[in-house]
Amino acid sequence: MRIVLVGPPGAGKGTQAAYLAKNLSIPHISTGDLFRANISQGTPLGKKAKEYIDAGDLVPDEVTIGMARDRMAQPDAESGFLLDGFPRNVAQAVALDEALREDGTTLDAVLDLEVPEDEVVKRIAGRRICRKDSAHVFHVTYNPPRAEGVCDVCGGELYQRADDSEETVRKRLEVYHTQTEPIVDYYRAQGLVVTISALGKVTDVTERAMSALGRDAAA
Predict the structure, then answer these.
(1) Is 131 annotated in the active site?
(2) What are the tens digits of pLDDT across the range 37-76?
(3) Is 88 in the active site?
(4) How far is CA 197 from the centre of its chain?
(5) Within a 10 A sphere around the Cβ of 54, how many other Cβ atoms?
(6) Full DSSP string of 65-130
(7) How far is 75 from 61, CA to CA, in rounded Å?
(8) pLDDT in tens, 166-218
(9) What residues form DSSP beta bridges with 112?
């Protein structure tokens, strides 16, 4: 299957992408991984992207699209792929359609993870990270530490990242509604959109997604 995964920040796209890719036996292709791989390998597109990033500028759509197209052409993606973080706007969605059409394929589905805005804010703004080891992550509501402000694992101080403040989260949501959400309408016009609730346990959301895609989740 060839799938695009969309949803607001805090919807759990990364987590669901990993589970779905495993269940469907297709590669999970994320924008972040594409950039890191191309830059670390020093590919022509990676060098271009690094120039823009180092200058503090946004990487042009054509560079991102080129990276995605190269990745989708690799052998492990022949039977399908799951795109996470791309396309990010309608222009990229149109370019993706054109690239797939040239390759004689099309998308099978666009999975839209739906989460109420207040829940997104609660999920992200409630995160607390350990200063000693950023891999230790807690949540004031869903996974609180035994002692407030103290990491259960190493005793380090827990803090809220600037990117996780409520003000920043709401700004990120505005960007999502303005730039990315319109691709849902774009794909809905093609009859590709499947919307599911991303509330509840991770495994429940995965089962919901697999059912919506017409597949059974692995045990």
Answers:
(1) no
(2) 999 999 999 999 999 999 988 899 999 999 999 999 999 9
(3) yes
(4) 16
(5) 8
(6) HHHHHHHHTSGGGTT-EEEES---SHHHHHHHHHHHHHTT----EEEEEE--HHHHHHHHHTEEEE
(7) 24
(8) 999 999 999 999 999 999 999 999 999 999 999 999 999 999 999 999 876 55
(9) 6, 195
Q: Angle at which helices 61-72 and 90-102 pack, to 10 degrees?
A: 40
201 is catalytic: no
Task: Give the Cα separation of 195 and 113 in Å (integer).
Answer: 6
Active-site option among 71, 123, 128, 172: 172
Helix axes 31-41, 61-72, angle to 10 degrees: 90
170 catalytic, yes or no? no
Cα–Cα distance list, 145 to 12, 53, 148, 151, 160 (Å):
21, 36, 6, 6, 14
Query: What single DSSP character describes residue 177?
Result: I
Is the Cα dihedral 216, 1, 214, 93 positive or negative?
A: positive
First to last CA, the chain: 20
172 an active-site residue?
A: yes
